Amino acid sequence: MVVLYREILAGGITCLKYTNDGIVWLKLYKDLFDFEETNALLALCYVIPVNSSRQDTEDADFFDRLLLDVAQFRIYFDNCVDIFVSGDFNARTADRPDYVAHDDTNYIPLPEDYTLYEDSDPRISTDTEAPNAHGHSLLDYGNRLNSVL
């Protein structure tokens, strides 16, 4: 993978981790990017498509590695960093919910203006094919991190 950015941003971006597993971790410094409180981490990802001839040579546990990285960076930065994940996951999710289904405000104190995703407008998806293995893994990843895709 290659990451390109403008020279003017060079002082505000550090590559934290790069391995040949389809994930590049960048640290984005709050001062350059005008983040209010914390620096941000950005994971840029590429997942080999299902049934690709290259897939046999790649580790099948991509999303487990991503979860492990997120956990390790949260610990390393003492939870004082925002984490964003972006890339090409080659994941088909069809019309499966991309939020925590059956979310409930009865057990966790939340702001009064908190909106349950199930009450939000439905997702507009042009993905008409059935979910693939990467799609199921991506949705599970989002649920395990209590995140919205």
What's a quick, concise take on this entry?
This protein has 149 residues and is an alpha+beta fold. The protein contains three helices and four strands; from the N terminus they run ββαβαβα.
Determine the fraction of residues in helical runs and give it as a percent range.
10-25%
* Widest β-sheet, arrangement of strands: 1-2-3-4
Cα-atom radius of gyration: 17 Å
Number of helices: 3
Kindly report how far apart the N and C termini lie: 22 Å
For the largest beta-sheet, the strand count, sense and barrel status come to:
4 strands, mixed
Number of strands: 4
Helix-strand string: EEHEHEH
* Percent of residues in beta strands: 15-25%
Mean pLDDT reading? 78
pLDDT under 50 segments (min length 5)? none
Sum up the overall morphology in one term. Answer: globular
Count of the separate structural domains: 1
What is the structural class? alpha+beta
How do the helices and strands line up, and which of them pair or pack?
Layout: E1 13-18, E2 23-28, H1 30-33, E3 40-46, H2 62-76, E4 82-88, H3 133-144
Parallel strand pairs: 3-4
Antiparallel strand pairs: 1-2, 2-3
